[in-house]
Amino acid sequence: MPDTKKYIENLSGAGKCIGVLTSGGDAQGMNAAVRAVVRMGIYVGAKVYFIHEGYQGMVDGGDNIKEASWESVSSMLQVGGTVIGSARCKDFRTHEGRLHAALNLVQRGITNLCVIGGDGSLTGANLFREEWSGLLDELVQSGQISEDAAQTHSALHIVGMVGSIDNDFCGTDMTIGTDSALHRIIEVVDAIMTTAQSHQRTFVLEVMGRHCGYLALVSALACGADWVLIPERPPKDGWEEQMCQKLSENRADKKRLNIIIVAEGAIDQNNKPITTDHIKDLVVSRLGFDTRVTILGHVQRGGTPSAFDRILASRMGVEAVLALLEASPGTPACVVSLCGNQAVRVPLMECVQMTQEVQKAMDEKRFEEAVKLRGRSFENNLNTYKLLSHRKIDTELPHSSFNVAVLNVGAPAAGMNAAVRSAVRVGITEGHTMFAVSDGFEGFYKGQIKEIKWGDVGGWTGQGGSLLGTKRTLPAKHVDKIAEQMRIHNINALLVIGGFEAYLGLMELQAARSKHAELCVPMVMVPATVSNNIPGSDLSIGADTAINAITDTCDRIKQSASGTKRRVFIIETMGGYCGYLATVGGLAAGADAAYIYEEPFDIRDLQSNVEHLTEKMKTSIQRGLVLRNENSNENYTTDFIYQLYSEEGKGVFDCRKNVLGHMQQGGAPSPFDRNFGTKIAAKAMQWISKKLKEFYRDGRVFANTEDSACLLGMRRRALLFQPVVQLKDETDFVHRIPKEQWWLRLRPLMKILAKYKTSYDVSDSGQLEHIVRLRAKDSSAI
């Protein structure tokens, strides 16, 4: 069978010129995208040009269009905003302006454009492309360019990347800058919560989003806000009364503070703006609560990009260059984006049209439709928020008479508490009695089990670690006592939130079902571990927070070398035998190498890395960063690598080493982990409710099938329930990792961006997907 894979080695950019520009409002992560386009472009042999100040620079020409070099994008990765500048450009909107721009590009031989910006910038780029041949004809007629030049540059190729903190662009799951903006918002909310708690205050926070409520909605989910107002779902008439009632109920329930989050574009049913001052006046006049308004403003656009945005932008930048290399004159302009954790290309104009349709639906008061057009992810966020924020009165609740237990197993991971809160509240809404088990399976067999109520989990989303307590103990040795506790408390279902021990534990409980009827109940596991080493799931709760901790520390460590020249840092990360943290952390921090167990290395590799760094020190970039996973090799320890580099680099560079240790497990959860934990646990709880009904026979629950003990994991684009028995074959139990791991495909990216020649399989990219199909497929999206 012939090998149908496509490799980067077969794609050449020789003779091609790529222009890269950032346009419209800035967003954190734009620099990472520019860096990736420049380095990938140079890597494939193309010339890459910076176009400074967006379209204005393209129209003005001159020094605004400069050739980029490998070194010119060094140290850009951790900088917020856009280093090459962005401007709103009136000239480009005129025909005359676009004529100037075309001339400037043709003079430099640029016929490939990579545009990083919002929908306005991308629409402008598409118009430019459509007019291109006409503009060249005009330039030939006026004698500014020759016939030959027009012939050579007859087609303009355009690839877009969406840089916008609002996440308001249809067809993309996440736009560059959104995650960083959420980080800024959550930092502020966490800080405000402590002062609000002290004074029993109500805070009204305004976040950005003139036409899109994504930031408001997700930050409300991530901090457990009492009320949220967004343009896509205006509150029903009489909302003022409802809101005030909700706030006073929460205060009666021993809650010392209230948080209300408002998108700047929030409107009521009649399309009239709802302002923060209006809400403040309402709360003060009706409830008499001490109320303050905080408008976050441009803080949300600023600061260093989060790890997610750096990785997103780096992946998109590389994908954009591939798309330009593969473009033919007939290819429509496309946008590269992520769907789940997969890179996709979607036609630019389909996305723009759909984005405009959302606005039109909102203008015409078709709000239900506006929410649907935003996509499944937005709709799921909204539904989850509604599920968790509004406590129903007991008379409204279905009463199920089922008891469901929740426990944490394994090492602590940031986001576990958000998952527990979500599970408890969804469980109570579904009518179950919820029980919390302290200290994992150890607490279970010792009988540390008590009922947990709605109010008990208030304020849990932002807390790191595990408030329930967690242990690595496995259940097999204590299975008799666990079965007895299940009987005593009449537990009808189990939700286990944890790492590899949770996965093993669930298998052991399932194996013990034949001896203990008490264990024949629905069980589901939600993966939560910083190592991200659980089979059946591409991501686990806690990994994003750990990657951010690694990235922040690497930034600081790199900065410490800015005064001392020629220094290489060796940094050891956690992860057991799983190289996820080292690889993805390395990609986000701009590492030169990352040593992991999954990709064996020998002394020759270490030698060539030292040589590579020696070459690098001759340029203007005089520092290096090398990551090593803690168990990557038992003989090539961190100390060994440090000593080898120190000896071999003598006279060229000196070395320092750092072991990051448990700081990777601590800290407040990132917005992504809070959200992921909240949504995945809510889904797990709904599955439990469904299974309880399914397995209820003759007055009791009896579940003994394979599919009644599942792991809920994220696979490519969807959340899937997978029987743990079926995951056995996918697991390397000795090294506690899955046999196949998706992120290994990102390793060549890190190497390319660090100037290593490598083989990169690009057969996964390149299919242009239509946006309608994308939405239909996305039924179990997160």
Automatic annotation (TrEMBL):
What parts of the sequence cross the membrane? none
Q: Which Gene3D superfamilies match?
A: 3.40.50.450, Phosphofructokinase domain
GO cellular component labels = cytoplasm
Please name the GO terms that the record assigns under molecular function.
6-phosphofructokinase activity; ATP binding; metal ion binding
Top-rank lineage group of the source organism:
Eukaryota
Q: Which biological process, per GO, is one annotated for this protein?
A: fructose 6-phosphate metabolic process
InterPro entries with a match to the protein in the record: 6-Pfructokinase_euk, ATP_PFK, PFK_vert-type, Phosphofructokinase_CS, Phosphofructokinase_dom, PKF_sf
State the PANTHER family in the record: ATP-DEPENDENT 6-PHOSPHOFRUCTOKINASE, PHOSPHOFRUCTOKINASE
Protein name as catalogued: ATP-dependent 6-phosphofructokinase, platelet type isoform X1
Provide the species name. Answer: Danio rerio
Q: What gene makes this protein?
A: pfkpb
